Amino acid sequence: MKKLLMTTAAATFAMGVAASAGTLTIVGGSSEFIPGGNATNHVLGELGMGTSLGGFYGSQIRVEEGTTRLKVELIGYEAANQNSFVFEGTEIFSGGGGKAVGDPIATKFVDITTYANNDVNSDGGLLNFLFTSLNGDGDVFVVSNGNNPDATKEEDPSINFFATFGDRDTRTGEVLLLFLDDVGRDNDDNHDDLVIRISAVPLPAGALLL
After folding, report:
1. How far is Cα 122 from Cα 109, in angstroms, rounded to an integer?
2. What is the pTM of this model?
3. Considering only 117-121, 125-129, 147-151, 165-169, which range has the smallest mean pLDDT?
4. CA-CA distance, 66 to 113, in Å (whole number)?
5. Burial class of residue 187 (count of CB atoms within 10 Å of its CB; 0-12, 13-18, 19+)
């Protein structure tokens, strides 16, 4: 009986652990809408998400301390430049030279471990990603998480990304959208040059128990 109870408890604990997922957080930035001005965001429209979307300019993205499995998806782009999304030092998506929209176009799964602010890791859960953009003249521009300019405050912030959980008020959640603007608001402020969806998903119970 004791053995049976212990086995049942372990199984229940495993299922409970497996059901949990890390929480993503949007830190800082200005609450606004995309696209800006009279621009059109082609990804929003084609995925049935309306013509505008609330969220945050100039923010940074963190994940709660611990081990988290992230599902990273490319869901669209409309850009002349060749743009890419680099996660944990590895380019995992790229697109440009035209338009493509899908739900999703491509998917990757990544397991990461983050720490609170301490001697091991001083970024306090800052996700390690960046966007790059290559224009027709061979110039390369980069915007990284942790160094994302606020397009509402800079005269011409050049490359930047917009972050949202679906509205201009929510700052924590498990499904995050990132919208790249590869050339700055004074030229093409639609933020549809590369669109990434990041979801925190439960890890297998066995992995956490080990």
Report:
1. 25
2. 0.85
3. 117-121
4. 5
5. exposed
